[in-house]
Amino acid sequence: MDFKVLPVKFSEQSEAVHYLFYKQHTVRSPVPEKPSDRTLFVINVLPYMDEASLKRLFRDCGKVRRVYIHKKPTPGLPEADSSRFFPTVEPVVGYKVAYCVFTKPEGLQKALSLDLSAESAPRVLSTEQHPLQVGVVKWQQEYNDSVLDEEALKKEVDEYMAEHDARVAEEIQKARAQEGQPDSDGWVLVTRHSKRPVARRTEGLDQRLKEKMKKKRQRQQMVNLYNFQLKDTKMEQLAKLREKFEEDKRKIASMRVQRKFRPY
Question: In this predicted model, which residue has the larger pLDDT, 212 or 42?
Fold first, then answer.
């Protein structure tokens, strides 16, 4: 299906005309939220257009239940932030695409049958009743929205920490319940949440630890001494090999002078 062209302009006083392109949304495996018989696919959407402006743009065709805005054509749904103060999804900026889902299939059919001749007047996006925020007004609103509400922020952090603590406590309880329990193959699961109590530090325990550390140091000294002996032995063997090599060189030189060189 070919795209249809919808001319729009920002306000009644605007002379510049922008063109939106739209058609019926058709994919092989549509998601339930974007049914093909009720969804209008719109491209070349202006950066300042939002869900409300797109709904007003097609309101004479029928009620638009939902508008999904993406950076590029996507069969699925846009990701949603679970937190108001710690967003993880980047906002869609610049030109974008939109999926307008009508309440009834008749709304889609009316939109596809609109008489959009070259002489038709462009549709107005920003009106006195529904102004669109652009320029300095938009920047002011974005700044005001960036100021955090301390009470709401504290409430969200407390709720998150409560959920985190409950999740950690559940994991610890589950790990302790599995401690020492063999699986189907007979292996015993060892976790970091052990039921065994920690040994209390006493004078006898301290003495045993000191003896253990002393023996460990002695073994290390013996190892170092053994390594030193091995090094000396290797140096002696190397010196003997060099001495034998020099002696063989002298014998060969003497045989050459006497011209009695007999290799066998």
Answer: 42
